[in-house]
Amino acid sequence: MIDAHLHLEQYSAAEAEELLDELPQHGVEAVVAVSMNLDSCIRTQQLAERCPQRVLPAYGYHPEQPLPSEAELAALLAWMEEHVSSMAAVGEIGLPYYRRAEALKRGEPFDLKPYLRLLDLLLAFAARHAKPVVLHAVYEDALLACDLLDKHGIRQAHFHWFKGPEEAVARMIGHGYYISFTPDIVYEPEIQALARRYPPQLVMAETDGPWPFEGPFGGRRTHPAMVRDVAAAWGALRGYSPSQAGSMLTANTARFYPLPPRRNQ
Predict the structure, then answer these.
(1) Extended beta strands in 189-255, E state
(2) How far is Cα 134 from Cα 58, in angstroms, rounded to an integer?
(3) What are phi and psi of 188, to 5 degrees?
(4) What is the pTM for the complete model shown?
(5) 90 pairs with which residues across the strands?
(6) 178-194, pLDDT tens digit by residue?
(7) In what side-by-side order are the strands of the sheet with 157-160?
(8) What domains are there in the chain, each with its CATH number?
(9) By C-alpha distance, which of 36, 29, 35, 82 is closest to 51?
(10) Segments of 161-259 assigned E as strands
(11) CA-CA-CA-CA torsion for 30, 36, 38, 42, nearest 10 degrees?
């Protein structure tokens, strides 16, 4: 299988190497490694260079953090231009739903416009280079993201760990956008309902590691091998065996994120 969304560089260097070495024994062929900012992109790129068959790198700026300065943004975009040929996707990018909700809960104002501008610029980069995009856009933010995807004519969009209103779900299905489920599909009714609703051909499995999970995963380090638990839970909801589900989700992910050609041994 393929872990469609993992923050590989957020693990310690030793943990990242250990996870990558363990992938074959868990039946995981590759991971899509997303990035947070320029420093994160560089670390992701270094991991991808060491394991090109197992790490598909995505470069971008995660929205759940302070905005970059103009100089920082220019440096990020320039670096991405230099490495565009090796990137699997632009990501993780999107809108700061949780950061905004926390600010409003504290009674603080929150200006979304600069984040919309940032997302617009990163989507323009993706469109210019015909790259897929990895989106953090949940609840009502998904509709704003869809507007910007339409603006740039982007159809290769992956909404990771998605949850949102029916209006957004219907629009995303109509455009053929992909979503991915995390291990919380095992115990979250909201996610299970979405899994029953979303077309099987537009679904992938992810872990979003090192983010921790609850239920049967409580206290465990998040590992790419958990995509097998995701597949089994998704398959049970859709009437597929674990093996069938794993094959389907793997085929979907490989279609969206083509694997690099294997080297001759």
Answers:
(1) 203-205
(2) 8
(3) -105, 110
(4) 0.96
(5) 59, 133
(6) 999 999 999 999 999 99
(7) 2-6, 30-33, 55-59, 89-94, 133-136, 157-160, 178-181, 203-205
(8) 2-256 (3.20.20.140)
(9) 29
(10) 178-181, 203-205
(11) -20
